[in-house]
Write a structure and sequence with these properties.
The chain is mainly alpha-helical. The protein folds into 3 domains: 205 residues, MFS general substrate transporter like domains (Growth Hormone, Chain: A, Up-down Bundle); 63 residues; 219 residues, Growth Hormone, Chain: A. Helices cover 75% and strands 2% of the residues. The protein contains 16 helices and 4 strands. The protein has a two-stranded parallel sheet. The two termini are 17 Å apart.
């Protein structure tokens, strides 16, 4: 334990690595679209806004969906530590390429691809290493640890947005991308140092998996081939039928949704049927599938922050503070700021709940998160009605929404990381962490579809939009809470505590 109290020594090191990685990711992301649409004379690429937004969507979706092969490489060959190290190096190379890309589209695309690949290697595996710090049965400690780790993500997001964003806009795009490269380098140096100290012995190469017999091995391999072939046939058939358009950036972005769903379903079925799982592990996989769907619904609402709520802030919110007009983009910093403020409270609660033997089902936590994210939009319904009358509304409405959404996020995201790292079959832990991040990717795409009805030039539609977002969150949230007890009894034997022989990591 560290002097931070009830956290393992290695958690602080992983916190810092994740903080610097998220600095680089969110710092670069903050200026990416601005760089893409800026004129060539200013060092940008001069793209149309539609193409720039599509490239942004493809990149963010790719970074998360690549977490699946990133987890597979760690589980099968490298182990988490080597995957993180290689991923960090590739990310650094990608940011350096962006810093020197200027108006070279080719160099820019190679750099962006490097960052997506590196993120896919790093993101699921660093979460897996956090899970390795805890025994499987330490539910409260694990939830608290992931909450603390999650705070690092948001501190990095705040610093990256402010520093890299400022440098990129005021000094030049290459300065912003360069700052992201330096941040990731700091994270890599910290990780290498921690590997010789607080993280010694963690994240090593996996033990080879041997099938029970030759017949099982043939069945597993055949199942994998059939599922991969089916995925290719589905996507190929849709392309031939003209349902997928790959001739433009916008069309490719639309196809990403089909790809994500196909890959997610195929990946899950492959592990379920060809992973040599025990009956208990298969039931836990069903639990993780339910949580995956709930998380995708949650992120489709939560990610409205970058679409409908961003437009609401820019066009319909009174942002005047005396003689100063608050930039609309600053509202995006409310969420990470609230994360930093509230995380110690949530972490302390999880530890207290475990000490007092309060068993709060993960289904209840996710259900409450869905209800809260819906309530955040319900708060905006009266504000939308005021805006429909032609008046700009107080910024306190959006502030309240972001506060409620942050509480919902802390009930779902760190708890989801904790639960996936604990309930996943041991040899598939990193891959299942990648599967968790795919839910975020799918939810982000769904968020864009849900926001298509946002028309700030005619705000009379806003109350209906926010009502739909409210009910579409609250109803599944209530259903999940009602299903918590029967699901826990069927899939987990009535308790989330694992059998004694599986407790030690």
């Amino acid at each position: 334990m560290t002097r931070l109290g009830k956290y393992p020594a290695g958690l602080t090191s992983l916190f810092l690595v994740e903080m610097w990685e998220r600095f680089s990711y969110y710092g670069m992301r903050a200026i990416l679209v601005l760089y893409l649409v800026d004129v060539v004379a200013n060092g940008g690429l001069g793209l149309a806004t539609a193409d720039a937004v599509a490239i942004y969507g493809i990149y963010t979706a790719s970074a998360y969906i690549l977490a699946l092969p990133g987890g597979w490489i760690a589980d099968r060959f490298w182990g988490s530590r080597r995957a993180i190290t290689v991923g960090a190096v590739i990310i650094i190379i990608g940011h350096i390429l962006l810093a020197f890309a200027g108006s070279s589209a080719g160099l820019f695309l190679v750099g962006l691809a490097c960052i997506a690949i590196g993120t896919g290697l790093l993101k699921p595996n660093i979460s897996s290493m956090v899970g390795e710090l805890y025994d499987k049965d330490d539910i409260g400690g694990r939830d608290a640890g992931f909450s603390f780790f999650y705070m690092g993500i948001n501190i990095g997001a705040i610093l990256g947005g402010f520093i890299a964003g400022y440098l990129g806009e005021k000094w030049g795009w290459h300065w912003g991308f360069g700052a992201a490269a330096i941040a990731m380098t700091l994270g890599l140096v910290n990780f290498i140092y921690a590997g010789k100290n607080s993280l010694r012995g963690l994240g090593g190469a996996p033990q080879p998996h041997h099938h029970p017999d030759s017949g099982t091995a043939r069945f597993d391999h055949l199942t994998t081939v059939i599922l991969c072939g089916a995925a290719v046939l589905v996507i190929g058939g849709m392309m031939m039928a003209g349902w997928l358009d790959l001739s433009s950036a916008t069309g490719i972005a639309g196809a990403m949704g089909v790809l994500i769903v196909t890959v997610a379903v195929g990946f899950f079925l492959n592990i379920y049927f060809a992973g040599d799982l025990t009956p208990a592990e298969k039931r836990r996989m069903i639990v993780l599938a339910v949580l995956f769907v709930a998380a995708a619904v949650f992120w489709s609402r939560f990610e409205q922050a970058g679409s409908s709520l961003s437009i609401f802030a820019a066009d319909l919110t009174d942002r005047q503070l005396g003689s100063f007009e608050v930039p609309a983009s600053w509202f995006q910093n409310l969420n990470p700021a609230f994360i930093v403020l509230l995380t110690p409270l949530f972490a302390a609660f999880w530890l207290t709940a475990q000490k007092r033997k309060w068993e709060i089902s993960v289904f209840v936590k996710f259900g409450l998160a869905l209800i809260l994210v819906g309530l955040g939009f319900w708060l905006l319904v009266p504000a939308a009605r005021m805006a429909a009358g032609g008046a700009k509304v107080s910024f306190l409405f959006l502030t309240g929404t972001f506060l409620i959404h942050t509480c919902a996020e802390l009930l779902l995201s760190p708890v989801g990381l904790s639960t996936f790292s604990r309930l996943a079959p041991q040899r598939f832990t990193s891959q299942m962490m990648g599967f968790w991040f795919v839910a975020s990717s799918l939810g982000s795409l769904m968020a864009g579809l849900l926001a298509t009805g946002m028309d700030t030039s005619s705000p009379t539609s806003l109350p209906h939009l926010f009502d739909r977002l409210f009910w579409g969150s609250v109803i599944p949230g209530v259903l999940l809470i009602l299903a918590a007890r029967p699901l826990t009894r069927w899939a987990l034997g009535g308790s989330e505590h694992l059998p004694a022989e599986e407790v030690k990591h």
